[in-house]
Each structure stands twice: as C-alpha cells, then as structure tokens.
Amino acid sequence: MGFRGYLLKRVVNSVILVFFVVTLNFAIFELMPGLNGALENLVNNPKSPITPQNQQALLKQYQLCQSFVNGNCVPFPIQDRYMAYLESMLTFNFGFSAKTGTLITNELFKTGRILNTLELVGTATVIALALGIFLGVLAAARRGSKYDGGVVIASLTTGSLPTFFMGILFIIIFAEGLKWFPTGGVTPPDWIRGLPPFYDQIFVRLQHLFLPVLTLTLFIYGGNLLLARATTLEALNDDYVLTARAKGLKGRTVLFKHVLKNASLPLITVAALNFGFILSGAIITETIFNWDGLGLWLFDAVTWKDFPVMQAMFFIIALSVIAANFIADILYGWIDPRIRYQ
Amino acid sequence: MAAVGVLIIVLFSALAIAAPILTSHDPKVDVVAGAFSPPTWARFFPGYQDRSENIAFQGLNVQTQPQSASVNKVSDQQVDVSLTSSSGPTTITVQKSLDFPYNGPPSRFQANLVLIPTGVSPTTPAFFTVYFQRTGENAWVLWKGNLTVSGQPVSPIIQMDSAERRLVNALNITSSTFNPAQIIFDRQASYVYTVAVTFQTSAPTTVGVTAKDMTAQLFGTSYGLLGTDDGGHDLFAAFIYGARVSLLVGLAASILGIVIGLVVGLVAGFLGGFVDEVLMRFNDMILVIPTLPLIIVLLAVLSPNINNIILIIGLLGWNGFARVVRSQVLSLRERPFIEAARASGAGTTHILTRHIIPNIIAIIYISLALSVPAAILTEAGLSFLGLFDPSAVSWGRTVNESLRGGTALGSLWWWVLPPGFAIAILSLSFVLVGYGLDEMFNPKLRRRR
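Structure tokens for the assembled complex are given below, as produced in the milestone run.
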C-alpha cells in the first residue's frame, strides 16, 4: 500500500473528523432554547433599537426564519439549517460577534490573536517536548537511580498541580514580588501608541513571554517525560541495543543515535494527541496572564455570552487539533519505514 | 507514600463532611468581619501588626439619679429600670464598656438598642441620647430623641452602623470617605456605649425604661483562620464547603467515566468485530476533540450547575480507560480458563462478571484513583474560568472571585493561595494512592525487600 495509501486513509479520517466537529458544534447550539443567542438581543427584546420589520429582514438574512406567522418565527427545517451552518463554518464565515458587533472573521485575522496563541503554544510545546524527551531518556538510561525516581516524582507532582494556581504563584513571586517580569499581556500597554524598533522589541517581548511559557511548559512536560521514559525503557530491551553495546559504542551514542529514533515514534503520535490538552492549558494560561490570544477570546466570549464567538473558537481549536493530528500522522508515516515500504 | 495520600484524602473528606459543625457561617451570605481581612494569625507578621479583631462591648451597668431604683437585669443585653422621679431631672444611664486593645482601628461598628419607656406622655416626654465615648473625652452621638408613649418600643430610624451613610452625617464627620469606626476607635483606650434617658416631671411619678437588645460590636480588620473576602465573608467556611464540592465532583465524575469506560471496553473487547470497530472509532473521535473548550462551550450553553458539570466531565473522560480495558479483555479472552468456562456452557454475562472483571479489578482501582485528580483539576479550572454553580462554593470559584477586583494578587494572599494549595495537595494525594495501588497489585514494580 505504501505511503500514498496511508496518506489517503489519514486524509479521509481527518475529513470525517471535521464533519463530526461541525455537527457537534451545530448540535450544541441547537440545544439552546429559542433563537441563536447572538440575535436574541436584537429580536424579542422590547429595548431593541431595530424596528420589527427590520428584525424580520435580519432574521431572514441569517436564514433562521423562513417566514413569519403572526409575528412568530417559523424556522427553516433542520436539514436546511444544518447545510447552511456547514457551509458557513467551512468557509470560515462565523457571523458577527454579539459583544462587539464586528465580523468575527475580520477580527480573527486582523488582530494578532492567532499569532499570539501560536507564539505561546508553539514555544511551550517545543520546550516541553525537548525537556521531556531529554530528561525522560536520561531517566530511562539511569533506571532505578535517585535521578530517575526524582524526575518521575517531579513530573507527577507538576502534572497534578492546577495550572491556574501555578500561574498565579509565579505572578506573585516573580512578577509582583521580585519584579523580574511583567504581570501580564503580550506587550506593554504603552506600545499601543507605537512600536519601538524591532531589536528593542525582542527583549521586552521575551520578558512578557517567559512566565506564560513557563506555566504552560510545566503543565505539559510531565506527560512527555513519562512517555519518553517508558518507550525508551522498552526500546532499551531490544536486541539491537545489545549488539550496539557489544560493538563497543559509547552509552551516549547508543542512547541518542539508535534508541531515540525508535522510541520517538510513539512520542510523535502522543504529542499530537496532546495538542488538544495543550490548548486547554493555553486557555487557562492566557486568562491568567491576560495574553491576548484565542483562549482569552473564548474566555471573554463565555463571560459575555457571545455565542457566535464561542462557536467559532471551538471550531478553530478543534480544527487545529485535527490538523495537528494529521501532520503527526504524516510525519509518523514518513519516519516509520515499515509504513513507507509496505 | 500511598499512606500519606490516604491520610490526606481522609482528612479532606472529614473536613468536607463535618463542614456544618466546623463553621456556622454561610460563606456566601454571612458577613463576619471587615472586607479584605487577613487571618488573625497574620498579626504576628510585620505589616499586619496594626490589625484588629472582632470585639464587642461587655457588661451592663446602670446608674440613676436619684439613686434608689429598682433594677432588673434580665441579661447582658436587657435591663428594666424603674424609679420614682424627683422634682428635678431624673436620669437613667445604662452603659456597656470596652477596653479596645488593638493598635489599629476596626473596620466597622454595629450597635443595637430598643427602648421601652414607662411614665411618659406627649406632654411629659423623656429625652434620650445614645453615644460612644472615650474616657474623658467628647461623646459621639449615634441616636437621640424623645420618648413620648409609655410602653411603646422605640428603635433607631438610622441604623447605628458605621456603614450607614446617614449616620456619618449625623456624626458631623465632614468627609464622606472617612469611616466612623476608624475615627472613633482609633487608639487603644477605654470606651463606653451609653444610653442616657432624662425625665422631666412636675410631680414625682414612677418612670422607667427598659433597654432591650443592647449590643455594640466592632468588626475587626482580621478574622479567623483564613480571613475574609471582599464582602467580609468567612473564607474558612468557603474553604470547607469548597472541599465538599471538589471531592464530590471529582469522585462522581471519575466514577461515571470509569463505569462508562468499563462497559465500553468490555463490550468492545469481548464482542469484537464490527461492534469493536465502531466503538473504537467513536472513542478515537472523542479523543481528538479538545475537552476543555468543549466543556466550556457546553456549560455556557446549558447552565453550569453541579449535576451538569459532573455529567459532562464524566461523559468526556472514559476514553483512555476504555482502551485499557479493551486491551486487557482482548488478552484475557484467549486464555484457557475462559475457553473452559465457555465449553461448560457459561453465558457471556457470566463470563464477563465472574471471570473477566475480577481479573481486571486492579486496573479499575488504579485508574479510578488516577482519574480523580483529572476530574478535580477540570472542575477547578472550569470554576476558575467562571463556569461554576452559583449556589455552590468551590475552590476554583474562590480563586476566580479573588481575581475579580484586579488588585495585586500578593496583597490578597490569604484569599488566593489556600484553595490552590488545597487542590494541588488533594490531587497529589490521589496520585500517590493510585501509584501505591499500582505497586501493590503489580508485583513487577515492587521493590525487593
């Protein structure tokens, strides 16, 4: 079947998942009584600034009501609603934010939100992966020693800590107490008036980035470490390791050149699966540090009951997880020779 | 180490169960002291040494002019005084006293009093004043007026409460930002809380007054074991009741997840084939969906009450366990003893309950112990984000509310830190118990003695 067949299977799988997510999103918001919340402030609201005729026109435009009987909305049949919803989701047409009234797609791409979240999540993932793999492989190599035990206990401990608590603790100690870092935000507030030259920006941005990345990394690295340790332990028992050692190769070479390659395969899949987990941690981290990204947007939307934004955020987050899984599957298929040369 | 975990869990459970005994305050409603009060034990640390605690005026002391009177002291808050009036002014003074011992002022005072006169009439009224007085200095009048109807109880129209704005005006405090409690009780001194009633009668008659519900209380600027929040509510009560919610949601949600995972894993593993394929595909689809955003969205749409939270966390938490059960069942299925059971005519249910489940009971216990922390942390995270049951106090909610004001987190440490620590310690204990069970059941992991 080879690589191409594998690729095809993964593409089909991802497409099915996307449909599943859209349907789920649709089902959740159908659970709400009454009309779609975004418009509920506009219609059926005695204080609404829009006249009833315009209300009806709006409802028709949003395809929520196909006609009006005695001033009451006769909704489209559910299949039509679903198809319209599917179409709008897939074309990234999320409608208007109930809080600000602006087009969500505009706000999504014009502000730097996606970049901010990517900055945070990307940095944390890479560091947590590197840290977890490095420490985990070492722990497996020194199995049973105090280092091994200590590292495992440390991972378990940090994995049981609530993220928001770690973030708050860091703010109290490092930002408010020692004043090494700012208490939040992507950039200092006075940068709204104008950005300083690029090289001056880097240090300040890093300062703002440090604590959030620290919090998120602490949240993730434990799982990576334990998994790396487990897979390395298994790989160390394989025969080729014995051969390599018999050949006289140094421990470190054996470890990082041979074992790591085999042990890292499951790591890739799990790292991708964990991406959803990382995004969940990112939501909390962004909330604590006032980090203007997608997670904070979702939090604000929940506070303001801004349902269109909530739908959009959930869809985007789910989409990124599916995309991450897909990329991981491709990587896995590429690296694992057993799939390529099948 | 597992023993430590069990101990901590038992401790928290005891705290949670005994909550109504340990505290009589409702953490959402009862105001127990000044707002933003640190715990009383913080007074030993620098920076908090000028904090005061709750204290009340004591005793009940009656003086009359003329001196012979019948005084019936019903309690520390009620006294009946009556005497025969003289030709001059006849006065009755009832007093409570307080030695204020603290370096710093209280945050608020509340005084109560009901007066029931006898021997007065609209033509011969009695005049009264109610005041605080520092020994040897001027009095701060809280309430004054005339008593004109015998037997009719009289209560203050403007509450004698330092939070009452109209009282501030009556006390002639010029700036509205000043707190009367801080101005009156600004030093260590002796104070009295006094009601003085003066009768003017033309001829000697029996006059008297009953002072009822006579109390005066100062709310301090520190309170209890964990201080107060921005409304003066007891944070220790919030802590204990929060333990209830966290334990309840953690255990219930993880049990739900384990049960569903068990059923799905058993069915998929044992029946195999198409059912297995469908169930595992479904499992994988749910695995891909990021749980926290989904839960957030679900709770924002449906209302966040405890039942919904438990249901949703449980319904999304069965995936990993189902896979584990399934793989165990798959390996057990081919064992000879199962084949033998089948050969002797055992049905599917019998095999599942009598043979398979007992062999995976270890994994069930361990997974249960290890999935509770995830449920607790999820609930805490949701409450922290604002998706909490408004009628229940949970630890995450406490932390959420502490961030409301936007003040520096370090200055409210007694509010922000204890719930977070508690969550961390509780989940750690379950993890310890889980790994202890793992060691117990898995002989390969046991250290050689």
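Chain A touches chain B through 51 residues (CB under 8 Å). Chain A has 14 helices and two strands. Further analysis is deferred to the final report.
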